[in-house]
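Mods, move this if it's the wrong board.
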Amino acid sequence: MKSSLTTTYFITKDMKIDLQQQNLNGVLPILYVFVVRADKSITNVTFGSLNGNGTFQEYAPGKTGGAIPGVRISYIDNPSGNSQTLYYFTTDISDGGIHSNPGFLKFCERFGTGSSFLKSSSYLMFESGFATIRNFILDHSRIILQDDAGIPLEYFNPDKWNLRLFGNYLGPIELFKQHYQPKLQELFTQSNPPPLDFGFGYRWNYKEANLMVAQRNQR
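Not the wrong board. Structure tokens:
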């Protein structure tokens, strides 16, 4: 958890090693910690997988499998007492992965439109091979909260989206420098957005971080 707590994101190449060489392996122990740190009480954990229609099916005792394995975590928000549910799935969200296993987006589609959160996402939706998930998020979101590594500015039609900017845009870090957005730089310069007092995304220094809130215009 060190990288997440210090820089606010996980490092993919480190996760491949770290999450398989501990006494508690995998992502679930980390999710448990963050749920409890957010002042919630876990009441039930159910392992299962999504079928081709996007239905979550519980595993029988001692069984595993399924093309899209996942877990359902039920918990109570302690301040309000409200019951809430967190789903976590392991799946390939590239165009090819979604074509091979469509159950994940079918599952998400059942929830209608909502709020989407994109952070430190490796600029994947800048690539042509991730058009399906990018379009799905745009079509099924009322609000999108993201850093510059999420959905490129060019896909936010100004007739459909109202954008609010925060912080500073210095461009991507060196690893992703090819995804610099001149038009986003121009927008930050023109709008003089309010500063952030917390780090966000790959720019974990709050003085360098940026944040975009995209809200769909009322139809």
